[in-house]
Design brief:
This protein is an alpha+beta fold. The protein folds into three domains: about 110 residues, no CATH class; about 120 residues, PDZ domain (Pdz3 Domain, Roll); about 170 residues, 2-enoyl-CoA Hydratase, Chain A, domain 1 (Alpha-Beta Complex), CATH 3.90.226. It is about 35% helix and about 20% strand. A six-stranded mixed β-sheet has the order 10-11-12-15-16-19, with helices on both faces. Strands 3, 13, 14, 17 and 18 form a five-stranded antiparallel β-sheet that branches. A hairpin with a 6-residue loop joins strand 8 and strand 9. Helix 2 packs parallel to helix 4. It starts with a helix and ends with a helix.
């Protein structure tokens, strides 16, 4: 029965792929779209050429443009667009997943795409299988993946990282994205085979073995995921999606999970009021240690960072904190807020990881620069001295109809930093944290453990 179902999945996936209607464009159409995108980047992104020269960006554009000399599908054209986006070195640039015309995204959801049915975890000692979503149960969590279709797994990940659009010279976010989106990135930027020949080291026998795993559709993967691991646990929606706050044994923990506008409005959260209540309580209870957790906070509404700053500042600051420069060249200078009477006077600890981004990163910067915070974890994904963000200009390429989002404001820090001399980097943690595979299996929280260790050492 299992073998019959396995063969059925292979046949069904093959039929879907053959039936998929490809959209093919001439070289002239593709060049026109590519030139159009370049013009829009130059028009709307005010950070281009600000933090770094545009020589590489211009040279790459010329090289890619000249290589568009034959017809191809929108799916084959996609890597060209991403490469140009990477060259802007601004992580808020993206190809919109709301695009329903091109074949870039929708094939994953309508069953047109069959792709890599495994998830991985990369740690210092190697790359390991985490989830097996195929009908063949041979591969087990913890098996070390060595190669795929004859190519070393490390070389594959390095290639995929080159397609991650990120701020400046920050590599942590590139590594995280290549790992977390391995299946789709492999499909877009490496190959679309019907089978993956995998060389791996079995954790049980400690021997190197080989296995062939078929490419599967998303629905098939969901089926086998649920069969093998059970459906994902349902999450009860509450304000905890946005933040949590508690005080235990004299240690306060503020988890800022997201600054998403929709969630903020859904739970009627007003950051200014929220912070006033929290820091009033901290002052009344004379709390000396505050842990702010922004791990995996990818940003959102700026007021979450803006209204937090007065409570983080160790002293009064005057003058301009940062300035917004619009795509039209308009400059708005933003002055330091007045330090709150309830500003935290104890030690602040900030927990970050590679997927902390945008205003999640800004909280880390504010806490480090103006609150003398101890940063624990991984370098977050946004540039310390500023980045392109704010409102987004959506453009649709005239021929392929692919939708691109371009950040329209340069948010530039004006006050000189006393905490870092690095350029085009994020906050470098005071205590970098790395995980072993056994740490992941044991679900350790090494960032929080380190914070507690440092707090106990001060008592």
């Amino acid at each position: 029965m299992k073998k019959t179902y396995f063969l059925f999945l292979l046949l069904f996936s093959s039929i879907i792929l053959q039936a998929q209607k490809e959209r093919v464009f001439t070289a002239e159409q593709l060049r026109a779209d590519f030139q159009f995108l370049k013009e829009k980047f130059d028009t709307y992104n005010p950070a281009l050429g600000f933090f770094h020269p545009t020589d590489d960006y211009e040279a790459l554009y010329d090289s890619l443009y000249n290589s568009l000399n034959e017809e191809m599908t929108d799916l084959d054209f996609y890597p060209y667009l991403v490469k140009l986006g990477v060259a802007t070195r601004e992580g808020h640039t993206f190809v919109s997943s709301s695009d329903t015309i091109s074949n870039i995204f929708k094939g994953f959801f309508d069953g047109s795409f069959s792709y890599f049915p495994l998830s991985i975890r990369r740690v210092d000692e190697g790359v390991y299988l985490w989830g097996n979503f195929s009908p063949d149960s041979t591969l087990q969590r913890g098996d070390e993946i060595l190669s795929i279709n004859g190519e070393d797994i490390s070389a594959i990940l390095q290639k995929l990282q080159s397609f991650v659009i990120a701020d400046g010279d920050i590599t942590s976010s590139k590594k995280a994205k290549a790992e977390n989106s391995f299946a789709s990135y492999y499909f877009w930027f490496c190959d679309k085979p019907e089978q993956f020949d995998i060389t791996y080291k079995s954790q049980q026998s400690n021997t190197v073995q080989k296995i062939g795993i078929p490419a599967l559709t998303r629905d098939s993967m969901i089926f086998w995921r649920n069969e093998r691991y059970g459906p994902p646990p349902s999450i009860e929606e509450s304000k905890d999606i946005v933040y949590t706050f508690d005080i235990k044994a004299g240690i306060a923990t503020l988890d800022l999970n997201t600054f998403n506008r929709q969630q903020k409005e859904k739970y009627k959260i007003k950051p200014k009021k929220l912070y006033k209540e929290i820091f009033t309580q901290l002052a009344e209870e004379e709390i000396e240690h505050l842990v702010i957790d922004v791990r995996s906070n990818t940003g959102g509404r700026r007021e979450f960072a803006k209204h937090l700053l007065p409570y983080l500042m160790k002293k009064e600051y005057s003058g301009v904190l940062y300035q917004d420069v619009s795509w039209k060249g308009r400059v708005h200078k933003r002055r330091f807020p007045k330090r709150s009477k309830k500003a935290f006077t104890g030690q602040i600890y900030v927990l970050t990881n590679a997927t902390t981004f945008s205003n999640g990163s800004v909280v880390t910067i504010y806490a480090k620069e103006y609150g003398d915070a101890i940063v624990i974890g991984q370098e977050p994904g946004s540039r310390y001295e500023g980045f392109a963000a704010g409102s987004t200009q959506y453009v649709v390429l005239p021929n392929t109809k692919i939708k691109i989002g371009i950040p329209r404001y340069l948010i530039q820090s004006v006050y000189p930093s006393t905490k870092t001399k690095l350029k085009n980097r994020g906050v470098v943690p005071d205590y970098p944290i790395e995980y072993s595979f056994s740490d992941l299996l044991e679900k350790k929280d090494k960032e929080k453990e380190k914070a507690i260790e440092l707090i106990k050492a001060q008592r």
